[in-house]
Amino acid sequence: MPNTRAASRFLVELGRNGRLIVAARALRTFxxxxxxxxxxxxxxxxxxxxxxxxxxxxxxxxxxxxxxxTLGLFADRWGRRRTLIACGCLMAVAGVAFALSESYPILLAxxxxxxxxxxxxxxxxxxxxxxxxxxxxxxxxxxxxVFTCYNVTAMAxxxxxxxxxxxxxxxxxxxxxDAAFALYALLAVCTVLLFWRLSxxxxxxxxxxxxxxxxxxxxxxxxxxxxxxxALDAFSGGLAVQSILAWWFAQRYGATSAQLGLVFFAANLxxxxxxxxxPFLASRRGLLAAxxxxxxxxxxxxxxxxxxxxxxxxxxxxxxxxxxxxxxxPARQAFTAAIVPPAHRTTAASMTSVARSVAVSVxxxxxxxxxxxxxxMIGAPLLVGAALGIGYDITLWRAFRAAPMDS
Length: 407
Known about the structure:
Protein name: MFS family permease
Strand content: under 5%
Mean pLDDT: 80
Radius of gyration: 20 Å
Number of strands: 0
Helix content: over 70%
Largest sheet: none
Keywords: Membrane, Transmembrane, Transmembrane helix
InterPro entries: MFS, MFS_dom, MFS_trans_sf, Sugar_transporter_CS
Order of helices and strands: HHHHHHHHHHHHHHHHHH
Number of helices: 18
Shape: globular
Transmembrane segments: 20-43, 55-75, 150-169, 181-199, 226-250, 262-281, 301-320, 365-392
Main location: membrane
Structural class: mainly alpha
């Protein structure tokens, strides 16, 4: 009963706009969880080579970079609600294209405009605007808790999306990948309807510079440093995104689509549950420790996966790695919101998201290049990704260990 009352009180504090944002991201990430497991299979069925898969994923990330950069600079002026609705419509168009077309050029165009994601990580144009609305919705002392809710619900939805991919692989009527992208388009329409209900309180408050007609956007120095480090982290993680891992598990261990759906259901559900510890860890150890300690352990586990002799042992290591890999996310988002004034939050959130998206746009092509010949068997992208991730942890600690660590 006390937990129920606390949850009800938290939902009230989150506000209508906050609840709509959390729900929209959950629907979107369910779609990512479903399609990312089956994306490589869809392209293989169309006769595309592995390098074409890498190119498509890189172009999808590049499209997110362009859109995130544009929204980071102009969403507050154009209207946050309007820009989120536009992005949702483009997402729906992309889903329809992937469900109905086998033309590689059409799929490239759809991937560029439609926030197609190779994993449940949300390095998309939506995230910067949504995080600004959430930071504006709640008390700053509640930011880590609010961002935990935002991420946990999304990861739980992504896990269910991977489970849905396993179910779609069992139905006999259409290919699982085509069904997944048709569902993706439907979910995009649902997110548009949720964004449509956002109230005017979701919009950015007018700043003195806006009232005076000055629109030059300045990116604070700490945000530039964070963006560079987040780009390194995103590149390292992008070498082992869900689509790449699913393909490697199939090649190395002979895992089936149904098996992969179950594996990635667990691989998305476990970090969602583990991320509930983020507010406690941040309050006890500070935001930086909450960001880095579980992240470092996750990278060490990632480095061990290529040495696993069997599918079962590799899956065990993967699940342990996934459990720890996302605990840092709410603390990272809260830290980014804390180091800039409220008027710069959309820019800060979007710029760090852009940096991550730029790095992720290169990662799939690099990963598929490393998956050639004998490098497939040794899991080279996983080893390189783990090494770069550990480098990020060490560098971030040295750069920001003297910064305020309040949660």
